[in-house]
Amino acid sequence: MNGVAMHIANGIVNAQVSAIFAAIAAAALAICVWRGRADLDDRLAPMAGLVAAFIFAVQMLNFQVLPGVSGHLLGGALAVVLVGPWVGALCVATVLIIQCLLFADGGLTALGLNITNMAIIGTAAGYLLVAGLLRVLPKTARGVAITAFVASVVSVVVASQAFVLEYALGGTTQLSLATIAGSMFGAHLLIGIGEGIIAAVTVATVARVRPDLVYALRRFRRSTQPAARPSAPAPAQTAGGAA
């Protein structure tokens, strides 16, 4: 491989492993559709469309991170913050499918691998970090921006290492596993920093203007509000009044 990129091309991983991960991706997306239906409402549905369109547009813009290595926004952590994990995974998967079928960005036989890495694993890693960080950080525009940055960096690196596992199971090139792992980690750490900056600026802007549209703020503000205490019963009075 001349360069390192998150989209896997045809033939990098053998057909058997590609078929297994295609089945894993299909099952995971079915669960996301089932769980995501409970989240979709009049506010989240149009937001999901905007998030998918934004991820699609930004993924078309590559930025150089090393000689021969370019990166672009994966969008998993950004989608999690704005529309939640289930709908977010569907947004990223939709973008990947369109890119594959219309622009040949990522191989058709590797579509299941790419969806598993970027839409499922990357989104899941991002959500775990978002859920943990927003329990300790202030639920403000600044807090959610820091959360989006950290979650983006980690989710991109985790998704890249998922490819290393897939390569170990069915890689077809002559490169060693250690070389692949090191190259993927180093390049995607830089890619993750770039994505983190984009995600942080985006979610901070939305949170300042319309915080009600940020799924993470609604979700974790609601889950951390203390339960209302029952009011104390009024003191009983005797029929003859106070003694």
Description:
The chain is an all-alpha fold and 243 residues long. The protein has 8 helices and 2 strands. The chain has helices spanning 15-39, 44-59, 76-83, 85-103, 111-133, 141-170, 177-209, 215-224; strands spanning 63-66, 69-71. Strands 1-2 form a two-stranded antiparallel ribbon. Helix 2 (44-59) runs antiparallel to helix 3. 44% of the residues are buried. The model is unreliable at 238-243 (pLDDT under 50).
What tags apply to this protein structure?
3% strand; disordered C terminus; single chain; two-stranded antiparallel sheet; 243 residues; 8 helices; mainly alpha
List the helices and strands and how they pair.
Elements: H1 15-39, H2 44-59, E1 63-66, E2 69-71, H3 76-83, H4 85-103, H5 111-133, H6 141-170, H7 177-209, H8 215-224
Antiparallel strand pairs: 1-2
Helix content: 55-70%
What topology, given as strand order, has the largest sheet? 1-2
> Main beta sheet, described?
2 strands, antiparallel
Q: Percent of residues in beta strands?
A: under 5%
Structural shape? globular
What is the subunit organization of this protein? single chain
Q: CA-to-CA gap between the ends?
A: 92 Å
Rg value: 22 Å
Number of strands: 2
Coarse structural class: mainly alpha
Instruction: Please give the count of helices.
Output: 8
One letter per element, helices H and strands E, the order comes to: HHEEHHHHHH
Which segments are poorly predicted (pLDDT under 50) over 5 or more consecutive residues?
238-243
* Average pLDDT rating: 85
